[in-house]
Amino acid sequence: MESQESRSESFDLTFKLRISYLYPSLIIDPPRWRGTVTCNRMKQLRNLVDRKVLLERMHENGEDRTTVSFYRYAHIHNPTFFRDYLFLHWEDFGVLGRIYVAKEGINAQLSVPTKRFEEFKDHLYSISFLEGIRLNVTVDEGKSFFKLTVKVKEKIVADGLNDEAFDVCKTGVHLDAVSFNELTSNEDTILVDMRNHYESEVGHFRGAITPDADTFRDEIEMVEKMLQGKEDQNIVMYCTGGIRCEKASAWLKHRGFPNVHQLEGGIIEYTRQVRNQGLENRFVGKNFVFDERLSERITPDVISECHQCGTPCDDHTNCRNVGCNLLFIQCASCSEKHEGTCGTSCQEIIHMSEEEQRALRRGKKDSARIFNKGRLRDQYKP
Ligand SMILES: [Zn+2]
Ligand SMILES: [Zn+2]
């Protein structure tokens, strides 16, 4: 910790002035951290090269780090200022990772030096709208970050919704695993999977409605239509980590469904609670996740089929033709037969020269459409 004296007085003053000037419009909920804002020294809001070198050395030294993620929808009136505030403070704790800040909230995936984790948590909780927020703490190493990036975004999750009209903070009732099991074992409860079809295809909760949606936006529209006339019933929704349900539940409430509930922390947190507390597990199959693993097995049940031959299979893969990259389910024997591609035309393409392949891709959008083409899967069946 640096002493009061070593601070850059001019910067500190400017910072305090900015705080007092900007604070009223920063967040609706008056932040309690106003009094604790101090800034140790003038820092640039970007990562300097020597810092990167330092961090690499730190990783080599095998310093213990804790991976943590969290999100919250909140009204942040000045995301740019909040971004600066977080960067200035968390960089001091040696925090690495990426944070998205938007007018609608915050979404963060971080790695914190384990020995400073409590300090970091205290600081996080001192921000009024993040007080007591549930943190997803990963014990395993996972992906390591080499720098801290804090970005101001339009949205904390790209959801394609025009949501000026409703309050994203007016969400449904949060459920833990115990109350989720209780409520969903009631026959009158409507359970909705808020994920896309390729996610629910390999695993979902027993009795859940799994809409055939390619995107979150489609999903929300389909679900709202499906629920027409069922306004009086209890609705329970879930997704992978809980963040999509925050928005979806607020939307449904806005559209006249008063009894909306959501699984807090999603399937990931549910699985953790079920395992730790020895509860009944109502999820079957695999949980689709958005990292290189593509999924995490929850139960041994295989509930889906290979898109090419129809044998039971729940292994997702991306077509080996980079210009296609279709996400689909492929068994080991089909993978061998089609060389990891989704069909004959892609198989032909991967045998072309790199130049020919590049010529074919020219002017075509590829990676951004990875997941949107899942619905085309029927055409690949023999
Ligand atoms: Zn197959
Ligand atoms: Zn393909």
Task: Give a verbal description of the structure.
The protein has 382 residues and is α/β, with parallel strands linked by helices. The chain folds into three domains: 9-152, 2-Layer Sandwich (Alpha-Beta Plaits); 173-286, Rhodanese-like domain (Oxidized Rhodanese, domain 1, 3-Layer(aba) Sandwich), CATH 3.40.250.10; 304-380, no CATH class. It is 31% helix and 17% strand. The chain has helices at residues 9-26, 49-60, 79-92, 117-125, 177-184, 197-200, 216-226, 243-254, 266-277, 332-337, 344-349, 354-361; strands spanning 65-73, 96-102, 105-113, 136-138, 148-152, 173-175, 190-193, 203-205, 235-238, 260-263, 283-288, 295-297, 316-318, 327-329. Strands 4-1-3-2-5 form a five-stranded mixed β-sheet, sandwiched between helices. Strand 9, helix 8 and strand 10 (260-263) form a beta-alpha-beta unit. The longest helix is centred in the N-terminal third of the chain and has 18 residues, at 9-26. The chain is globular. The termini are far apart. Residues 1-44 and 366-382 have low confidence and may be disordered. It binds zinc ion (2 copies). One zinc ion (ZN) binds next to loops.
